[in-house]
Amino acid sequence: MEDAWSNEITESLAHCGYYIKTNALPERLIDELTLTAQDSKPQFQSAGIGRSDDHQINQVIRNDTIHWITGTDQAQAIYLNEMELLRVAINRRLYLGLFDYEAHFANYPIGGFYKKHVDAFKGQSNRVLTTVLYLNKHWREEDQGHLLLYNSKGSLIKSVLPDAGTLVIFLSEEFPHEVIPTARERLSIAGWFRINTSTSDKVDPPT
Ligand SMILES: O=C(O)CCC(=O)C(=O)O
Ligand SMILES: [Fe+2]
């Protein structure tokens, strides 16, 4: 994580609340993360939203499968380390008090989507910043699966092609977004920088 890069990210976040960059990370790292994601496909599971007994409802809202990243191989470890350096840089410049980072691979099958949602409801979540890194070589317009980013008034502000190496970061509470149905299998890493919401009777994160 170069200073110039973390400066660019923090300035963009301070200025407009989001950051979108193609080829944000070295191609080799993207390739290795892609291989890791493909290798761990047998471990991907249906993504939940909130409680697991809402599973059927979830399928109407999103139908990707996910696998949490734990840093078990070199590519994952390098990625998590980059995000850790970014966390520290953001805290130093924007005073967000980010406490940790959680991330999972996501796989959208052909026809996969994630309807319009926010990743955090104001004041109700410890998710402060959302990150999405795409792992799909040579994505074309006709492959669809765009990420659409809206402002808090509901106007469309960005349409992002999920092409390999593109990184999107935005304030989780401020930007509703959706994944439109994809015409090609679509791999990504979605992650969240969080604040610590521990109270006296609840330890966060759970151990
Ligand atoms: O993959 C994307 O473009 C966005 C995914 C997303 O919104 C999420 O996982 O919360
Ligand atoms: Fe989201």
UniProtKB/TrEMBL annotation:
Which Gene3D superfamilies does this one have?
q2cbj1_9rhob like domain
Q: Which UniProt keywords apply?
A: Dioxygenase, Iron, Metal-binding, Oxidoreductase, Vitamin C
- Name the coenzymes or cofactors required: L-ascorbate
Q: What GO biological process term is on the record, naming one?
A: cellular response to hypoxia
Record-annotated Fe2OG dioxygenase domain positions: 94-195
Q: Does the keyword Ligase apply?
A: no
Molecular function (GO) terms listed? Answer: ferrous iron binding; L-ascorbic acid binding; peptidyl-proline dioxygenase activity
Superkingdom per UniProt: Bacteria
A Pfam family cross-referenced in the UniProt record is: 2OG-FeII_Oxy_3
- Name of the featured protein: 2OG-Fe(II) oxygenase
> What organism is the protein native to?
Neptunomonas concharum
Where is the organism placed in the taxonomic lineage, from the top? Bacteria, Pseudomonadati, Pseudomonadota, Gammaproteobacteria, Oceanospirillales
